[in-house]
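Quick one: structure for this chain?
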Amino acid sequence: MRRRLRFSGWVIALVFLGQLSACAGDEEKQLLVFAAASLQDVLTELEEPFEAVSGADLRFNFAGSNTLALQLEASGRGDVFLSADEEWMDFVERSGRLEPQTRRTILSNRLVVIANYSSPFEISRLDDLADLPFRFLALGDPRAVPAGRYGRQLLEKIPVDLRGEGTSLWAQLRDRVVPCPDVRAALAWVEAEPEAVGIVYRSDAVSNERVKVLYEVSAAEGPEIRYSGAVIRGSSKAASAREFLEFLGFEAAKENFFEHGFAPLPSSSPPRMKLGFGHG
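Got it. Here's what it folds into:
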């Protein structure tokens, strides 16, 4: 069931976007958004209000940010890219696939350690994982998937004294890692396997009744997680693509992100996005 969107915030946002749409012309309506897998639930929820006022027909391609970036490098097809980390956005920018001056940082997230809802596992600190009798650690592939890379960075920072030899928690657990193609696949592994634990985003676990959160990583403990978005260079729907990025910056949209477990940008927030597309 979709959440009820806050009415007052959407009135302002949708009236403004309606004015922009009236000037957008009769270009093709379908807008293809390449979006990180962790954004699937919230973007699906935001689809209807955006389409109602923009006249666009949103189409989503959800996958790991690494997979999306490689697709964009190879083909350039698409209108908007929403990445779960800055590195893959950098990769697409270096390949010349981003429209200049459209890139913006959108929001943040937190990591959580999860287990199957039926498992007996409990921890009070991250280093408790060293003695937890689980068989599998489900992660987005730590070589490429943002959630997996964030998870590895987290575990590498935690020292563990193993038989008198100092090592990291990552070094102790890596042989049990199940590398998954994206964070949703890691979540699904834990949903299906009572002997597994996983590290995923808080937004993936916040309303999932098939898993339980063993530990929520604070902003101070974890790596800095930054989602970013940009228009794909050569998009024939560049105006609508900019409009969609503008829409994601409205407070009403941000409230929905936060209800889904996402977080404000770490440290200090960037300047508020100006209204309009910044043409000229």
